[in-house]
């Protein structure tokens, strides 16, 4: 597959291997642009955006645009998406907040990769509807409800991992708002309150501490930084990390998963621990298939891959981690440099964050 040159990560992955993984993701994309977990399988908006970001890293920009346009065409009027699609049809209609928000991360990542003003203009309204819904779902105290009830009101439950993802999504949305010349002060207020909740109000979130994502995602998303980030990662290291194999999905099961391991690698890089991130990316390579795709997970007492599937989102996590750890791609700092996005409450015009002197997109 033609595209951007991808650097080698000595002892971990070669650029050619990363390119093969990008090609493996592209091979699962349907002709209409949809990016399911695997061809013929389910599609959810969050994972589809992640896979599209990996395509952009590999230079497959037309494919990434097609994936984003597929999602844009299926956004509901309230800004939400269904939580699952199969063959283009909604198969799980629940509207989840992290699905509504994540296109903002994908579009900002695409802008960093391509500086495609036309795509930003085309999808800006879609991103705005999604993040407006997220802010409407924010609960007292700053956390965001995980889903809408059937009557359209927010559920009372907030999930920490999803909220950390929304923290990043809102900041990307603020960046896009500056790019389009349409500031969104409500988003800035929302992300300020959400960041405070993630750092200071653990009781605002449902207790899912057995999941590794709740451990590292506040660091990955940039809500917890510096020494606090390093302390957080060190605190539960022994609970989740299996030396030489990767990261448990849940602390009480002997099951390591590739995506979680790569996400931990991203969190480590964000905390300034790049060497440790490289070690984790290297540790999960036992999940690599000959064609560059990746098995989802491994039950190590049984020496068994489980589930028996190779998912686009697992492969995408590998590509994004490799790009971030190499630090050479135009979007590589999105996950590793929390300061690269505008701070909540900061005027973009005075913050000087626009990459390469980029101007304002006219929607």
From TrEMBL:
Q: Which domain of life is it from?
A: Bacteria
Q: Which GO terms describe its molecular function?
A: transferase activity
Instruction: Extract the InterPro entries matched here.
Output: 6-hairpin_glycosidase_sf, 6hp_glycosidase-like_sf
Q: Which GO terms describe its biological process?
A: carbohydrate metabolic process
Its keywords, alphabetically, are: Transferase
The name on file for this protein is Prenyltransferase
Q: What is the lineage of its organism?
A: Bacteria, Bacillati, Actinomycetota, Actinomycetes, Geodermatophilales
